[in-house]
Write a structure and sequence with these properties.
It contains 27 helices and 17 strands.
Protein backbone atom coordinates (compact mmCIF):
# COMPACT_ATOMS: atom_id res chain seq x y z
CA UNK A 1 0.00 0.00 0.00
CA UNK A 2 1.30 3.48 -0.84
CA UNK A 3 0.41 6.85 0.69
CA UNK A 4 -2.32 7.60 -1.90
CA UNK A 5 -4.00 4.22 -1.39
CA UNK A 6 -3.92 4.69 2.39
CA UNK A 7 -5.39 8.19 2.06
CA UNK A 8 -8.32 6.95 -0.03
CA UNK A 9 -8.96 3.65 1.73
CA UNK A 10 -8.95 4.90 5.31
CA UNK A 11 -9.84 8.59 5.06
CA UNK A 12 -11.85 8.87 1.84
CA UNK A 13 -9.78 11.61 0.18
CA UNK A 14 -8.27 11.60 -3.30
CA UNK A 15 -5.62 14.26 -2.79
CA UNK A 16 -3.55 15.70 0.03
CA UNK A 17 -4.02 19.22 1.35
CA UNK A 18 -1.33 21.87 1.14
CA UNK A 19 1.86 20.79 2.87
CA UNK A 20 0.72 17.33 3.97
CA UNK A 21 2.55 15.38 1.28
CA UNK A 22 5.83 17.19 1.84
CA UNK A 23 5.90 16.28 5.54
CA UNK A 24 4.70 12.72 4.89
CA UNK A 25 7.43 12.16 2.30
CA UNK A 26 10.11 13.47 4.68
CA UNK A 27 8.97 11.11 7.44
CA UNK A 28 8.81 8.13 5.07
CA UNK A 29 12.40 8.96 4.04
CA UNK A 30 13.39 8.63 7.72
CA UNK A 31 13.76 12.36 8.43
CA UNK A 32 12.52 14.38 11.41
CA UNK A 33 9.73 16.86 10.70
CA UNK A 34 8.13 19.97 12.19
CA UNK A 35 4.77 21.09 10.86
CA UNK A 36 3.18 24.44 11.74
CA UNK A 37 -0.32 24.12 10.29
CA UNK A 38 -3.52 25.92 11.29
CA UNK A 39 -6.41 24.11 12.93
CA UNK A 40 -8.38 22.22 10.29
CA UNK A 41 -5.39 21.90 7.93
CA UNK A 42 -5.04 18.16 8.57
CA UNK A 43 -1.99 17.92 10.85
CA UNK A 44 -2.98 14.50 12.18
CA UNK A 45 -2.86 12.93 8.70
CA UNK A 46 0.80 13.96 8.48
CA UNK A 47 1.72 11.37 11.12
CA UNK A 48 -1.19 8.94 10.71
CA UNK A 49 -0.43 8.10 7.06
CA UNK A 50 3.29 7.41 7.73
CA UNK A 51 2.31 5.42 10.85
CA UNK A 52 0.36 3.03 8.60
CA UNK A 53 3.28 2.59 6.21
CA UNK A 54 6.24 2.39 8.63
CA UNK A 55 7.21 -1.05 9.86
CA UNK A 56 6.78 -0.50 13.59
CA UNK A 57 4.37 1.47 15.75
CA UNK A 58 4.00 5.22 16.21
CA UNK A 59 3.72 6.88 19.63
CA UNK A 60 1.77 10.13 19.63
CA UNK A 61 2.36 12.38 22.64
CA UNK A 62 -0.83 14.28 23.37
CA UNK A 63 -1.67 16.65 26.25
CA UNK A 64 -5.35 15.93 26.86
CA UNK A 65 -7.43 12.82 27.45
CA UNK A 66 -10.32 14.15 25.36
CA UNK A 67 -8.03 14.63 22.34
CA UNK A 68 -6.71 11.08 22.57
CA UNK A 69 -10.15 9.55 22.94
CA UNK A 70 -11.48 11.52 19.99
CA UNK A 71 -8.56 10.66 17.70
CA UNK A 72 -8.55 6.96 18.62
CA UNK A 73 -12.30 6.71 18.09
CA UNK A 74 -11.96 8.29 14.64
CA UNK A 75 -9.07 6.00 13.67
CA UNK A 76 -10.87 2.84 14.74
CA UNK A 77 -13.94 3.99 12.79
CA UNK A 78 -11.71 4.33 9.73
CA UNK A 79 -10.43 0.77 10.22
CA UNK A 80 -7.07 1.66 11.81
CA UNK A 81 -6.18 -0.13 15.06
CA UNK A 82 -5.24 2.51 17.64
CA UNK A 83 -5.27 2.89 21.42
CA UNK A 84 -4.54 5.45 24.11
CA UNK A 85 -2.78 5.18 27.44
CA UNK A 86 -3.55 7.77 30.10
CA UNK A 87 -4.95 8.25 33.61
CA UNK A 88 -8.55 7.59 32.48
CA UNK A 89 -7.69 3.87 32.26
CA UNK A 90 -7.26 1.50 35.19
CA UNK A 91 -3.87 -0.13 35.74
CA UNK A 92 -5.30 -3.44 34.47
CA UNK A 93 -6.54 -1.73 31.30
CA UNK A 94 -3.13 -0.13 30.74
CA UNK A 95 -1.37 -3.49 31.22
CA UNK A 96 -3.74 -5.12 28.72
CA UNK A 97 -3.28 -2.30 26.19
CA UNK A 98 0.52 -2.54 26.43
CA UNK A 99 0.35 -6.33 26.03
CA UNK A 100 -1.72 -5.99 22.85
CA UNK A 101 0.63 -3.28 21.59
CA UNK A 102 3.64 -5.53 22.20
CA UNK A 103 1.89 -8.21 20.13
CA UNK A 104 1.61 -5.77 17.23
CA UNK A 105 -2.13 -5.08 17.56
CA UNK A 106 -1.85 -1.30 17.24
CA UNK A 107 -0.12 0.87 14.66
CA UNK A 108 -0.73 4.09 16.63
CA UNK A 109 -0.71 4.61 20.40
CA UNK A 110 -1.57 7.96 21.99
CA UNK A 111 0.28 8.59 25.24
CA UNK A 112 0.12 11.30 27.91
CA UNK A 113 3.58 12.82 28.55
CA UNK A 114 3.41 11.88 32.24
CA UNK A 115 3.14 8.18 31.27
CA UNK A 116 6.58 8.23 29.61
CA UNK A 117 8.48 8.04 32.90
CA UNK A 118 6.57 5.09 34.44
CA UNK A 119 8.46 1.80 34.79
CA UNK A 120 5.80 -0.26 33.00
CA UNK A 121 5.80 1.99 29.93
CA UNK A 122 9.58 2.27 29.81
CA UNK A 123 9.83 -1.52 29.98
CA UNK A 124 7.36 -1.83 27.10
CA UNK A 125 9.18 0.82 25.01
CA UNK A 126 12.55 -0.91 25.51
CA UNK A 127 11.23 -4.01 23.72
CA UNK A 128 8.86 -2.47 21.16
CA UNK A 129 9.67 -1.43 17.61
CA UNK A 130 8.93 2.29 17.71
CA UNK A 131 9.29 3.71 14.21
CA UNK A 132 8.15 7.25 15.04
CA UNK A 133 7.47 9.46 18.01
CA UNK A 134 5.10 12.29 17.11
CA UNK A 135 4.53 15.28 19.39
CA UNK A 136 1.09 16.86 19.05
CA UNK A 137 0.47 20.42 20.35
CA UNK A 138 4.26 20.80 20.21
CA UNK A 139 4.17 24.44 21.39
CA UNK A 140 3.61 23.00 24.89
CA UNK A 141 7.33 22.11 25.06
CA UNK A 142 8.47 25.72 24.67
CA UNK A 143 8.58 28.02 27.69
CA UNK A 144 8.05 30.87 25.19
CA UNK A 145 4.83 29.26 23.95
CA UNK A 146 1.39 30.34 25.11
CA UNK A 147 0.70 27.02 26.86
CA UNK A 148 4.03 25.74 28.25
CA UNK A 149 3.67 22.40 30.04
CA UNK A 150 6.70 21.20 32.05
CA UNK A 151 5.45 17.60 31.60
CA UNK A 152 6.36 17.87 27.90
CA UNK A 153 10.05 18.00 28.86
CA UNK A 154 9.70 14.32 29.80
CA UNK A 155 9.63 13.59 26.07
CA UNK A 156 13.31 14.56 25.81
CA UNK A 157 14.29 12.22 28.67
CA UNK A 158 12.23 9.41 27.14
CA UNK A 159 13.95 9.71 23.76
CA UNK A 160 17.37 9.55 25.42
CA UNK A 161 16.44 6.26 27.13
CA UNK A 162 15.50 4.46 23.93
CA UNK A 163 18.12 2.11 22.45
CA UNK A 164 17.28 3.26 18.92
CA UNK A 165 16.12 6.81 18.28
CA UNK A 166 12.93 6.80 16.20
CA UNK A 167 11.90 9.42 13.66
CA UNK A 168 10.64 12.44 15.59
CA UNK A 169 7.85 14.60 14.20
CA UNK A 170 6.17 17.57 15.88
CA UNK A 171 3.04 19.53 15.04
CA UNK A 172 1.24 22.63 16.27
CA UNK A 173 -1.27 25.15 14.98
CA UNK A 174 0.12 28.38 16.41
CA UNK A 175 3.81 29.17 16.86
CA UNK A 176 5.81 32.33 16.24
CA UNK A 177 9.31 32.00 14.80
CA UNK A 178 10.89 32.02 18.29
CA UNK A 179 8.62 29.21 19.44
CA UNK A 180 9.32 27.19 16.28
CA UNK A 181 13.05 27.45 16.89
CA UNK A 182 12.58 26.48 20.55
CA UNK A 183 10.54 23.37 19.63
CA UNK A 184 13.23 22.15 17.22
CA UNK A 185 16.01 22.87 19.72
CA UNK A 186 14.42 21.31 22.83
CA UNK A 187 13.28 18.17 20.98
CA UNK A 188 16.68 17.87 19.33
CA UNK A 189 15.22 17.52 15.85
CA UNK A 190 17.90 16.35 13.43
CA UNK A 191 17.94 18.51 10.26
CA UNK A 192 14.14 18.42 10.19
CA UNK A 193 11.82 19.16 7.32
CA UNK A 194 10.18 22.34 8.64
CA UNK A 195 6.94 23.38 7.01
CA UNK A 196 4.81 26.41 7.77
CA UNK A 197 1.80 26.01 5.47
CA UNK A 198 0.35 29.38 6.32
CA UNK A 199 -1.98 30.49 9.07
CA UNK A 200 -4.73 31.71 6.76
CA UNK A 201 -8.07 29.94 7.27
CA UNK A 202 -10.05 31.22 4.30
CA UNK A 203 -13.33 29.70 5.48
CA UNK A 204 -13.25 31.77 8.68
CA UNK A 205 -14.68 35.27 8.82
CA UNK A 206 -13.21 37.51 11.54
CA UNK A 207 -14.98 40.35 13.32
CA UNK A 208 -14.35 42.70 16.23
CA UNK A 209 -17.54 44.27 17.57
CA UNK A 210 -17.95 46.85 20.34
CA UNK A 211 -21.61 46.49 21.40
CA UNK A 212 -22.86 48.56 24.33
CA UNK A 213 -24.55 45.41 25.63
CA UNK A 214 -22.45 42.29 25.05
CA UNK A 215 -25.01 39.88 26.50
CA UNK A 216 -27.69 41.38 24.27
CA UNK A 217 -25.44 40.95 21.24
CA UNK A 218 -24.89 37.25 22.03
CA UNK A 219 -28.59 36.58 22.62
CA UNK A 220 -29.51 38.32 19.36
CA UNK A 221 -26.91 36.26 17.52
CA UNK A 222 -28.24 33.03 19.00
CA UNK A 223 -31.80 33.90 17.94
CA UNK A 224 -30.47 33.72 14.38
CA UNK A 225 -28.04 30.82 14.82
CA UNK A 226 -29.32 28.88 17.86
CA UNK A 227 -29.61 25.59 15.98
CA UNK A 228 -25.98 25.74 14.85
CA UNK A 229 -23.13 24.53 17.01
CA UNK A 230 -20.95 27.22 18.54
CA UNK A 231 -18.66 28.15 21.43
CA UNK A 232 -18.90 31.31 23.53
CA UNK A 233 -15.69 32.01 25.44
CA UNK A 234 -15.73 34.15 28.61
CA UNK A 235 -12.64 35.11 30.61
CA UNK A 236 -14.12 34.37 34.05
CA UNK A 237 -16.31 31.69 35.63
CA UNK A 238 -18.74 34.38 36.74
CA UNK A 239 -19.28 35.54 33.15
CA UNK A 240 -19.74 31.92 32.03
CA UNK A 241 -22.45 31.32 34.63
CA UNK A 242 -24.28 34.58 33.89
CA UNK A 243 -24.18 34.09 30.11
CA UNK A 244 -25.23 30.45 30.42
CA UNK A 245 -28.30 31.38 32.48
CA UNK A 246 -29.36 34.00 29.94
CA UNK A 247 -28.93 31.58 27.03
CA UNK A 248 -30.96 28.73 28.52
CA UNK A 249 -33.65 31.27 29.48
CA UNK A 250 -33.82 32.04 25.75
CA UNK A 251 -34.69 28.38 25.14
CA UNK A 252 -31.41 27.51 23.38
CA UNK A 253 -29.90 24.10 24.15
CA UNK A 254 -26.62 25.03 25.83
CA UNK A 255 -24.12 23.75 28.36
CA UNK A 256 -21.14 25.20 30.27
CA UNK A 257 -17.55 24.40 31.16
CA UNK A 258 -15.10 25.92 33.66
CA UNK A 259 -12.68 24.81 36.37
CA UNK A 260 -15.24 25.42 39.12
CA UNK A 261 -17.35 22.45 38.00
CA UNK A 262 -16.70 18.91 39.18
CA UNK A 263 -14.81 16.51 36.92
CA UNK A 264 -18.02 14.59 36.25
CA UNK A 265 -19.95 17.77 35.37
CA UNK A 266 -17.23 18.86 32.96
CA UNK A 267 -17.09 15.41 31.37
CA UNK A 268 -20.86 15.23 30.92
CA UNK A 269 -21.18 18.80 29.63
CA UNK A 270 -18.36 18.28 27.15
CA UNK A 271 -19.99 15.06 25.95
CA UNK A 272 -23.37 16.81 25.51
CA UNK A 273 -21.68 19.40 23.31
CA UNK A 274 -19.56 16.97 21.28
CA UNK A 275 -22.55 14.66 20.67
CA UNK A 276 -24.73 17.62 19.57
CA UNK A 277 -27.18 17.09 22.41
CA UNK A 278 -26.53 20.69 23.41
CA UNK A 279 -24.98 22.50 20.45
CA UNK A 280 -23.91 25.69 22.31
CA UNK A 281 -21.01 25.68 24.77
CA UNK A 282 -20.32 28.61 27.15
CA UNK A 283 -16.84 28.20 28.61
CA UNK A 284 -13.61 29.65 29.89
CA UNK A 285 -10.43 28.90 27.95
CA UNK A 286 -10.12 25.72 30.06
CA UNK A 287 -12.33 24.19 27.36
CA UNK A 288 -11.41 23.23 23.85
CA UNK A 289 -7.89 21.86 23.59
CA UNK A 290 -8.23 18.40 22.10
CA UNK A 291 -11.83 18.89 20.95
CA UNK A 292 -11.97 17.79 17.33
CA UNK A 293 -15.63 18.72 16.75
CA UNK A 294 -15.78 19.58 13.07
CA UNK A 295 -19.17 21.30 12.77
CA UNK A 296 -18.63 24.33 15.07
CA UNK A 297 -20.06 27.16 12.98
CA UNK A 298 -19.11 30.10 15.20
CA UNK A 299 -16.83 31.06 18.08
CA UNK A 300 -17.70 34.21 20.02
CA UNK A 301 -15.23 35.70 22.48
CA UNK A 302 -17.22 37.56 25.11
CA UNK A 303 -13.95 39.01 26.43
CA UNK A 304 -10.60 39.74 24.79
CA UNK A 305 -8.06 36.90 25.32
CA UNK A 306 -4.58 37.59 26.70
CA UNK A 307 -2.74 37.03 23.42
CA UNK A 308 -3.23 36.37 19.72
CA UNK A 309 -1.87 32.83 19.99
CA UNK A 310 -4.69 31.86 22.35
CA UNK A 311 -7.25 33.81 20.35
CA UNK A 312 -6.35 32.21 17.03
CA UNK A 313 -6.26 28.73 18.55
CA UNK A 314 -9.66 29.19 20.22
CA UNK A 315 -11.26 30.95 17.24
CA UNK A 316 -9.82 28.22 15.02
CA UNK A 317 -12.12 25.65 16.63
CA UNK A 318 -14.75 26.97 14.25
CA UNK A 319 -15.02 25.48 10.79
CA UNK A 320 -12.66 22.53 11.15
CA UNK A 321 -14.60 20.82 8.36
CA UNK A 322 -13.72 23.64 5.97
CA UNK A 323 -17.25 25.07 5.90
CA UNK A 324 -17.78 28.83 6.28
CA UNK A 325 -17.80 29.91 9.95
CA UNK A 326 -17.59 33.09 12.03
CA UNK A 327 -15.11 34.22 14.67
CA UNK A 328 -16.41 37.24 16.58
CA UNK A 329 -14.59 39.09 19.35
CA UNK A 330 -16.67 41.41 21.55
CA UNK A 331 -14.36 44.16 22.79
CA UNK A 332 -14.61 46.73 25.56
CA UNK A 333 -11.93 48.78 27.31
CA UNK A 334 -12.62 46.82 30.51
CA UNK A 335 -11.32 43.67 28.79
CA UNK A 336 -7.76 44.98 28.97
CA UNK A 337 -8.03 45.38 32.74
CA UNK A 338 -9.49 41.86 33.14
CA UNK A 339 -6.74 40.36 30.95
CA UNK A 340 -4.02 42.17 32.91
CA UNK A 341 -5.55 41.02 36.22
CA UNK A 342 -5.52 37.40 35.00
CA UNK A 343 -1.91 37.77 33.85
CA UNK A 344 -0.86 39.04 37.28
CA UNK A 345 -2.49 35.96 38.87
CA UNK A 346 -0.84 33.55 36.44
CA UNK A 347 0.98 30.68 38.13
CA UNK A 348 4.71 30.86 37.52
CA UNK A 349 7.00 27.90 36.93
CA UNK A 350 9.17 27.48 40.07
CA UNK A 351 11.87 25.74 37.99
CA UNK A 352 12.74 28.99 36.18
CA UNK A 353 15.18 31.59 37.51
CA UNK A 354 14.29 35.23 38.21
CA UNK A 355 15.78 36.58 35.01
CA UNK A 356 13.84 34.12 32.85
CA UNK A 357 10.61 34.78 34.76
CA UNK A 358 11.03 38.53 34.20
CA UNK A 359 11.59 37.94 30.48
CA UNK A 360 8.41 35.83 30.32
CA UNK A 361 6.43 38.54 32.13
CA UNK A 362 7.63 41.16 29.63
CA UNK A 363 6.77 38.82 26.75
CA UNK A 364 3.26 38.32 28.18
CA UNK A 365 2.80 42.08 28.44
CA UNK A 366 3.92 42.58 24.85
CA UNK A 367 1.52 39.87 23.68
CA UNK A 368 -1.32 41.51 25.55
CA UNK A 369 -0.55 44.85 23.89
CA UNK A 370 -0.56 43.22 20.46
CA UNK A 371 -3.89 41.56 21.26
CA UNK A 372 -5.34 44.92 22.29
CA UNK A 373 -3.98 46.52 19.11
CA UNK A 374 -5.82 43.85 17.09
CA UNK A 375 -9.07 44.95 18.71
CA UNK A 376 -8.30 48.61 17.95
CA UNK A 377 -6.96 48.36 14.41
CA UNK A 378 -8.90 49.71 11.46
CA UNK A 379 -6.84 47.61 9.02
CA UNK A 380 -7.75 44.14 7.74
CA UNK A 381 -8.06 41.77 10.71
CA UNK A 382 -6.88 38.73 8.77
CA UNK A 383 -3.80 40.62 7.60
CA UNK A 384 -3.04 41.68 11.18
CA UNK A 385 -3.15 38.03 12.35
CA UNK A 386 -1.01 36.79 9.46
CA UNK A 387 1.58 39.54 10.01
CA UNK A 388 1.74 38.63 13.70
CA UNK A 389 2.70 35.07 12.79
CA UNK A 390 5.30 36.26 10.29
CA UNK A 391 3.27 36.06 7.09
CA UNK A 392 2.17 38.70 4.62
CA UNK A 393 -1.53 38.98 3.93
CA UNK A 394 -3.40 40.96 1.31
CA UNK A 395 -4.20 44.60 2.08
CA UNK A 396 -7.89 43.59 2.21
CA UNK A 397 -9.33 40.09 2.66
CA UNK A 398 -12.96 41.20 2.12
CA UNK A 399 -13.95 38.64 4.76
CA UNK A 400 -13.51 40.49 8.05
CA UNK A 401 -15.50 43.22 9.77
CA UNK A 402 -12.93 45.92 8.99
CA UNK A 403 -12.91 45.13 5.27
CA UNK A 404 -16.71 45.34 5.27
CA UNK A 405 -16.80 48.71 7.01
CA UNK A 406 -16.68 52.11 5.38
CA UNK A 407 -13.82 54.32 6.57
CA UNK A 408 -12.99 57.95 6.17
CA UNK A 409 -9.47 59.42 6.51
CA UNK A 410 -9.37 62.21 9.08
CA UNK A 411 -6.45 64.54 9.77
CA UNK A 412 -5.99 64.36 13.56
CA UNK A 413 -2.67 66.19 13.64
CA UNK A 414 -3.94 68.95 15.95
CA UNK A 415 -5.50 66.45 18.35
CA UNK A 416 -2.27 64.41 18.28
CA UNK A 417 -0.28 67.48 19.28
CA UNK A 418 -2.52 67.82 22.34
CA UNK A 419 -1.81 64.17 23.22
CA UNK A 420 1.92 64.92 22.97
CA UNK A 421 1.54 67.98 25.19
CA UNK A 422 -0.32 65.93 27.80
CA UNK A 423 2.32 63.15 27.83
CA UNK A 424 5.02 65.80 28.17
CA UNK A 425 3.11 67.57 30.94
CA UNK A 426 2.83 64.31 32.90
CA UNK A 427 6.55 63.62 32.28
CA UNK A 428 5.89 60.06 31.08
CA UNK A 429 4.43 58.92 34.43
CA UNK A 430 1.09 57.50 33.18
CA UNK A 431 -0.40 55.11 30.67
CA UNK A 432 -3.22 55.32 28.10
CA UNK A 433 -6.14 55.29 30.54
CA UNK A 434 -4.96 58.30 32.56
CA UNK A 435 -3.80 60.27 29.50
CA UNK A 436 -7.05 59.66 27.57
CA UNK A 437 -9.18 60.33 30.65
CA UNK A 438 -7.37 63.60 31.32
CA UNK A 439 -7.68 64.83 27.74
CA UNK A 440 -11.37 63.89 27.66
CA UNK A 441 -11.99 65.69 30.96
CA UNK A 442 -13.31 62.53 32.64
CA UNK A 443 -14.38 62.60 36.27
CA UNK A 444 -13.55 59.37 38.10
CA UNK A 445 -11.92 58.50 41.40
CA UNK A 446 -8.50 57.52 40.04
CA UNK A 447 -8.19 60.76 38.05
CA UNK A 448 -9.32 62.85 41.01
CA UNK A 449 -6.69 61.10 43.12
CA UNK A 450 -4.02 62.19 40.61
CA UNK A 451 -5.51 65.72 40.57
CA UNK A 452 -5.45 65.76 36.77
CA UNK A 453 -7.99 68.61 36.62
CA UNK A 454 -5.20 70.99 37.66
CA UNK A 455 -3.22 70.28 34.48
CA UNK A 456 -3.56 72.47 31.39
CA UNK A 457 -4.27 69.37 29.24
CA UNK A 458 -7.42 68.51 31.21
CA UNK A 459 -10.42 68.48 28.87
CA UNK A 460 -8.34 69.49 25.82
CA UNK A 461 -10.04 66.74 23.73
CA UNK A 462 -13.41 66.78 25.45
CA UNK A 463 -15.19 67.15 22.09
CA UNK A 464 -13.40 64.08 20.71
CA UNK A 465 -14.40 61.90 23.68
CA UNK A 466 -12.45 59.25 25.57
CA UNK A 467 -13.00 56.20 23.27
CA UNK A 468 -11.82 58.09 20.15
CA UNK A 469 -8.93 59.62 22.10
CA UNK A 470 -7.80 56.11 23.06
CA UNK A 471 -7.98 54.99 19.44
CA UNK A 472 -5.92 58.04 18.47
CA UNK A 473 -3.27 57.16 21.09
CA UNK A 474 -3.16 53.53 19.92
CA UNK A 475 -2.58 54.71 16.35
CA UNK A 476 0.13 57.11 17.52
CA UNK A 477 1.85 54.15 19.19
CA UNK A 478 1.65 52.10 15.99
CA UNK A 479 2.88 55.05 13.90
CA UNK A 480 5.86 55.63 16.20
CA UNK A 481 4.91 59.04 17.67
CA UNK A 482 4.68 57.43 21.10
CA UNK A 483 6.21 54.38 22.75
CA UNK A 484 5.02 52.41 25.80
CA UNK A 485 7.29 50.91 28.45
CA UNK A 486 7.51 47.09 28.40
CA UNK A 487 6.27 46.56 31.96
CA UNK A 488 2.67 46.03 33.07
CA UNK A 489 2.13 49.79 33.52
CA UNK A 490 2.81 50.56 29.83
CA UNK A 491 3.75 54.18 30.55
CA UNK A 492 3.62 56.49 27.53
CA UNK A 493 6.82 58.19 26.36
CA UNK A 494 7.54 60.55 23.47
CA UNK A 495 9.77 59.67 20.53
CA UNK A 496 11.83 61.89 18.21
CA UNK A 497 9.06 61.51 15.66
CA UNK A 498 6.71 63.39 18.04
CA UNK A 499 8.87 66.50 17.62
CA UNK A 500 8.49 66.20 13.85
CA UNK A 501 4.71 66.30 14.28
CA UNK A 502 4.92 69.37 16.51
CA UNK A 503 7.01 71.13 13.84
CA UNK A 504 4.37 70.24 11.21
CA UNK A 505 6.87 68.02 9.38
CA UNK A 506 4.56 65.03 9.94
CA UNK A 507 0.81 64.51 9.83
CA UNK A 508 -1.33 62.23 11.98
CA UNK A 509 -3.94 60.69 9.65
CA UNK A 510 -6.49 58.41 11.24
CA UNK A 511 -8.93 55.97 9.65
CA UNK A 512 -12.29 56.32 11.35
CA UNK A 513 -15.43 54.32 10.73
CA UNK A 514 -18.64 55.93 9.70
CA UNK A 515 -21.34 55.63 12.36
CA UNK A 516 -22.66 52.08 12.42
CA UNK A 517 -25.71 50.47 14.02
CA UNK A 518 -25.25 48.46 17.22
CA UNK A 519 -27.45 45.65 15.81
CA UNK A 520 -29.67 45.96 18.86
CA UNK A 521 -32.53 44.37 16.89
CA UNK A 522 -30.51 41.20 16.30
CA UNK A 523 -30.26 41.74 12.56
CA UNK A 524 -26.47 41.80 12.34
CA UNK A 525 -25.62 40.51 8.87
CA UNK A 526 -23.79 37.19 8.75
CA UNK A 527 -20.47 37.30 6.91
CA UNK A 528 -20.02 33.57 6.45
CA UNK A 529 -21.35 31.70 3.42
CA UNK A 530 -23.71 29.10 4.88
CA UNK A 531 -25.24 25.94 3.48
CA UNK A 532 -28.09 28.15 2.25
CA UNK A 533 -25.63 29.80 -0.17
CA UNK A 534 -24.83 26.39 -1.65
CA UNK A 535 -27.97 24.24 -1.38
CA UNK A 536 -31.42 25.18 -2.66
CA UNK A 537 -34.60 24.63 -0.64
CA UNK A 538 -34.82 20.93 -1.56
CA UNK A 539 -31.11 20.55 -0.84
CA UNK A 540 -31.42 22.08 2.62
CA UNK A 541 -34.37 19.81 3.38
CA UNK A 542 -32.38 16.78 2.27
CA UNK A 543 -29.33 17.88 4.28
CA UNK A 544 -31.52 17.86 7.41
CA UNK A 545 -32.67 14.32 6.60
CA UNK A 546 -29.06 13.18 6.25
CA UNK A 547 -28.24 14.91 9.52
CA UNK A 548 -31.07 13.05 11.28
CA UNK A 549 -29.81 9.74 9.86
CA UNK A 550 -26.27 10.58 10.99
CA UNK A 551 -27.52 11.38 14.52
CA UNK A 552 -29.40 8.06 14.63
CA UNK A 553 -26.31 6.10 13.57
CA UNK A 554 -24.16 8.04 16.06
CA UNK A 555 -26.55 7.10 18.86
CA UNK A 556 -26.44 3.45 17.82
CA UNK A 557 -22.63 3.51 17.71
CA UNK A 558 -22.23 5.63 20.87
CA UNK A 559 -20.03 8.27 19.26
CA UNK A 560 -20.17 11.92 18.14
CA UNK A 561 -22.08 12.46 14.87
CA UNK A 562 -19.16 14.20 13.14
CA UNK A 563 -17.05 11.04 13.46
CA UNK A 564 -19.62 9.22 11.28
CA UNK A 565 -19.48 11.93 8.59
CA UNK A 566 -18.71 15.66 8.73
CA UNK A 567 -21.15 18.37 7.63
CA UNK A 568 -18.89 18.91 4.62
CA UNK A 569 -19.37 15.27 3.61
CA UNK A 570 -23.16 15.55 3.98
CA UNK A 571 -23.24 18.71 1.82
CA UNK A 572 -21.13 16.90 -0.78
CA UNK A 573 -23.67 14.04 -0.77
CA UNK A 574 -26.42 16.58 -1.45
CA UNK A 575 -24.46 17.94 -4.41
CA UNK A 576 -23.30 14.64 -5.92
CA UNK A 577 -26.36 12.49 -5.06
CA UNK A 578 -24.55 9.13 -5.29
CA UNK A 579 -26.67 6.08 -6.19
CA UNK A 580 -23.92 3.42 -6.32
CA UNK A 581 -20.91 2.29 -4.28
CA UNK A 582 -18.52 3.80 -6.81
CA UNK A 583 -20.33 7.15 -6.74
CA UNK A 584 -20.49 7.16 -2.92
CA UNK A 585 -16.71 6.61 -2.73
CA UNK A 586 -16.34 9.79 -4.81
CA UNK A 587 -17.87 11.82 -1.95
CA UNK A 588 -15.28 13.73 0.09
CA UNK A 589 -14.64 11.96 3.40
CA UNK A 590 -16.13 8.56 2.46
CA UNK A 591 -13.45 5.87 2.67
CA UNK A 592 -13.85 2.13 2.11
CA UNK A 593 -14.29 1.28 5.80
CA UNK A 594 -16.94 3.95 6.33
CA UNK A 595 -18.73 2.89 3.17
CA UNK A 596 -18.84 -0.70 4.46
CA UNK A 597 -20.35 0.47 7.76
CA UNK A 598 -22.70 3.25 6.66
CA UNK A 599 -22.83 3.46 2.88
CA UNK A 600 -25.94 1.31 2.36
CA UNK A 601 -27.98 3.33 4.90
CA UNK A 602 -27.13 6.62 3.23
CA UNK A 603 -27.69 5.28 -0.29
CA UNK A 604 -31.13 4.08 0.78
CA UNK A 605 -31.93 7.51 2.23
CA UNK A 606 -30.88 9.14 -1.06
CA UNK A 607 -33.06 6.76 -3.10
CA UNK A 608 -36.07 7.35 -0.85
CA UNK A 609 -35.77 11.12 -1.07
CA UNK A 610 -35.16 11.33 -4.82
CA UNK A 611 -37.19 8.33 -5.94
CA UNK A 612 -34.03 7.15 -7.67
CA UNK A 613 -34.07 10.10 -10.08
CA UNK A 614 -31.31 12.65 -10.58
CA UNK A 615 -32.15 16.18 -9.48
CA UNK A 616 -30.23 19.33 -8.74
CA UNK A 617 -30.23 20.25 -5.05
CA UNK A 618 -27.72 23.11 -5.29
CA UNK A 619 -27.19 26.46 -6.98
CA UNK A 620 -24.92 26.80 -10.03
CA UNK A 621 -22.69 24.04 -11.42
CA UNK A 622 -20.47 21.56 -9.57
CA UNK A 623 -17.48 23.59 -10.78
CA UNK A 624 -19.00 26.69 -9.19
CA UNK A 625 -19.61 24.73 -5.99
CA UNK A 626 -15.95 23.76 -5.95
CA UNK A 627 -14.90 27.40 -6.31
CA UNK A 628 -17.31 28.45 -3.55
CA UNK A 629 -16.39 25.77 -1.05
CA UNK A 630 -12.81 25.02 -1.99
CA UNK A 631 -11.59 21.73 -3.40
CA UNK A 632 -13.72 18.75 -2.38
Amino acid sequence: MNKYEALKKYFGYDTFREGQEKLIDAILEGRDALGIMPTGAGKSLCYQIPALLLSGMTLVISPLISLMKDQVQSLNQAGIHAAYINSSLTENQITKALKLAAEGRYKIIYVAPERLETYEFLDFAAQAEISMLSVDEAHCISQWGQDFRPSYLKIVDFLMRLKTRPIVSAFTATATENVREDIACVLGLNEPEILVTGFDRKNLSFAVETPKNKAGFVLNYLREHGEESGIIYCSTRKNVEQMYEKIIALGVLATKYHAGLSNEERRQNQEDFVYDKKPVMVATNAFGMGIDKSNVRYVIHYNMPQNLENYYQEAGRAGRDGEASECILLYSVQDLMIARFLLEGKEENPQLNGETLQAIRERDEERLRRMNDYCQTTSCLRRYILNYFGEHGKERCENCSNCRKEFIIVDRSEEAKKVISCVREFKGRFGINVIAGTLAGADRAKLREYKVSSYSSFGALKNLGEPKTKRLIHQMLMDGFLVATSDKYALLKLTDKADELLRDNQKMLLKETKDEPQYADGNRPSAAKRKSDILNTRGLEFFERLRILRAKLAKEEGMPPYIIFSDKTLVDMCIRLPFTREEMLMVSGVGERKYEKYGARFLEEIRQYTGGKREKLYFGSIEEMQRLRGKF
